[in-house]
Each structure stands twice: as structure tokens, then as C-alpha cells.
Design a protein that fits this description.
By secondary structure, this protein is mostly helical. 58% of the residues lie in helices and 1% in strands.
Length: 270
């Protein structure tokens, strides 16, 4: 962990170091830094995939929420507008898709009209609305249901996900959709369905990249799964095996995201 912390300090920007500080000590970032982390938000509440783009993206908004979560900023107006935007974007079947206008630029895991991408976006959006509801309940009485203010939205998302799970616990989408779905279903007390997914994840873990293992572990820990859970124990062993000599972990999305992956590993092991 000391080596991982040193990697973020050496290679991260001001926002990355503030995320690290809060993960380690709970120190709140400065208002100026939080403003910088929220830059680029569209008027409707979501974030576009690219600065200055006109159309907000479900995938990009979930990524920005993950950064703001590390900064303790999910309760700020910018994050709340983004969460309300996500909730309003839910489709009648309980799922999510990107705006058709993004068809020419969206990555494979967010391509409009693609069923695999739709499953992944549903798991991702459902996860962040779950987290927001948990945080709101921790801060005070909001709604007694799981998911707080977004309880109905999250419940519909969980139903959409379980309807497409295969009998062996696998799912018809990208790898990350598995742990995001497991987290959503766990918090909906759909423990049998969540456990089926976790068994598949554990079987695939030896072949997972460091970035995927870090994201998996951080996701499951964020919804309160015990750090001694057998899947999380396997994940931490895998992270120990794949840490580089410079203290960081390699991202699947290029070296410019190595700090983000390393922060996810720290979040998973804190």
C-alpha cells in the first residue's frame, strides 16, 4: 500500500491526490478542487464523454460519479443533478441506453441499440443510484426502502438485470457488468442471484487484468460486502500478484489511466 500511495503522489494530478487523501484520512478536498472535478457538466445534469460535447453520456456520467465519490462529493448539487438525470433516463423496461446521437462515438460497452451495452449501462447506472441511496440513508432518514429516493428506479434496474441472467449465473454482456450487477442485487437483498454472479467472477479472476480486479473489489466493498468475503480475498491476492515495481497497477485503457486503476486498488484494500 505504501508503494501504491507513492505512485499516486508521484504521477497523479491535484484531483487524484485529493482522492487519495480522502481515501487514506477522510480529509475533505477544497471547494476549488471540487469545482474543478465537476467541470464540463451539461445543463441537463449529465456529463458528455468529451469536454464541450453537446450530448450527455450515461457511461461518462457514471465515470465522473466514481471520481466524485472518492472526493466525498456525491451529496453536492452537481452530483445530485447527475443522479437525477440518470434516474430520468431509465427506460420503461428498467434499463438504460445511450442517446442515439452518440452512435458514432460511443465505445463498444456503451453503443446505442446494442443489447450487451444496454445491460452494462443498466448495471452501471443502477450501481451509482444504489450508492447514492445508501449514502443518503446514512446521512439521515430519507426513505426506508433500499435505494432511498431512487428506490423504485433501482428496483426496476435489478429486475431488468435478473431477467437476463443465465441459469449458470453468467450474464450477456461485458465482464464489468457482472460485478456491477452483483453489487446492485446484493443491496436489493437478492442474495441468491448476486452469489451466482460472484461464483462466475471468482472462476474468471485468474485471467482478469489488474484494472478489472481493482474495479471488481472496489465495487463490492462500496455496497458493504464484507472484506473477508471469499471473492474479495481472492481479489486482494490477485492485486498483490499484479502490482508493478513502481507501486502502480496497469489500466486496460492506457497508461494515462494507471493512477485511476491504482486508486481503485487502494479503495478496494483500505
Amino acid at each position: 500500500m505504501d508503494a501504491a500511495i507513492g505512485f499516486v503522489v508521484a504521477h497523479g494530478d491535484a484531483v487524484d491526490r485529493a482522492r487519495l487523501s480522502r481515501l487514506r484520512t477522510g480529509a475533505p478536498p477544497s471547494p476549488e478542487l471540487l469545482d474543478a472535478a465537476e467541470v464540463g457538466q451539461a445543463s441537463d445534469g449529465g456529463w458528455p464523454a468529451y469536454l464541450g460535447a453537446a450530448v450527455a453520456s450515461v457511461d461518462a456520467t457514471c465515470f465522473r460519479l466514481s471520481e466524485l465519490d472518492d472526493l466525498g462529493a456525491l451529496g453536492r448539487p452537481a452530483a445530485r443533478r447527475a443522479l437525477d438525470w440518470l434516474a430520468a433516463r431509465q427506460l420503461p423496461d428498467g434499463g438504460w441506453e445511450e442517446d442515439p446521437a452518440l452512435a458514432g462515438s460511443a465505445p463498444d460497452w456503451a453503443r446505442p441499440g446494442d443489447p450487451e451495452a444496454g445491460f452494462h449501462l443498466t448495471a452501471n447506472a443502477g450501481f451509482w443510484l444504489t450508492v447514492a441511496g445508501l449514502d443518503a440513508r446514512a446521512a439521515g432518514p430519507l426513505d426506508h426502502r433500499v435505494g432511498g429516493a431512487y428506490a423504485g428506479v433501482v428496483h426496476a434496474a435489478a429486475q431488468s438485470l435478473t431477467a437476463r441472467l443465465r441459469p449458470d449465473g453468467s450474464w450477456p454482456s461485458f465482464l464489468a457488468a457482472g460485478w456491477l450487477s452483483a453489487a446492485v442485487l446484493h443491496r436489493q437483498e437478492m442474495f441468491h442471484e448476486a452469489a451466482r454472479i460472484q461464483v462466475v467472477l471468482a472462476e474468471r479472476m485468474p485471467e482478469m487484468s489488474p484494472g478489472d480486479v481493482a474495479w471488481l473489489a472496489a465495487t463490492l466493498r462500496r455496497v458493504g460486502i464484507d472484506d473477508q468475503d471469499w471473492v474479495l480475498l481472492r481479489a486482494r491476492r490477485r492485486l498483490a500478484e499484479t502490482q508493478r515495481s513502481d507501486g502502480g497497477w496497469e489500466s486496460d485503457d492506457g497508461h494515462q489511466f494507471d493512477v485511476h486503476t491504482t486508486l481503485a486498488a487502494i479503495r478496494a484494500c483500505r
